[in-house]
Amino acid sequence: MSETNDDGGPPAGCGLRLWVEDRTPIKDLPGFRPNHSVPKETTSQTRLYVAGIGEAGVTADLERVARLLREAFGLKRKELKSIGPDRGGGSLVCPQLTYTVTVSQTADDPAVALTRREVEPGEPDVLTDPGLAFAFAPGFTALERRFNEPADVEAVIDAVEDADPPEVKSLDYPLDASECELRLAGFGGRVKITADAAAILAPTPVPPGDLVKAWAKVKGLLEVAGTG
């Protein structure tokens, strides 16, 4: 079990994070009132406005997830710390993970809010713990690993093309090879690799175990390429 920092901060983390995002009409946010108006543009003021009316939903979400985490991991009161809500976001910190939820105005539609729920496990084993799947059903749409040093995307492409591994159904990339996209056998989503990160992306929420299995395949490809 990983532990929080000496200053009471979140666990150091394992370098992986999972998330799922939902789009909601701003008028359907729990903090929206009859005297409120739906923004027709996106500005710094409207972003603050949406964050403000989104805080009621953030509070409710933190309460809901806290109950699930206590049940899933048998947490005591002292083991679960809440932060916020503040400016449309809030977090829960426990020895197993850090959970963050935010509500913001979408960039492409000023009348729509984006709720993002993100988990950073304290240890890789948490990803396959049944408690994680229980607390965050139906699951997540992404697993990301950010690299400490820039990855050599060209080396990844070359390694996949040279080995032609059976777990890779397809490989696509632009002429400058600045990024690449893979399709994996047995996984309905896609994998995007850039110099900064590798992301496993599912079209709909899936249990964390499905994303972990896909990540294991991607990790093996990165190791063969000597990068990441």
Automatic annotation (TrEMBL):
Domain of life of the native organism: Bacteria
Protein name per Swiss-Prot or TrEMBL: Uncharacterized protein
Naturally occurring in which organism (per UniProt): Alienimonas californiensis
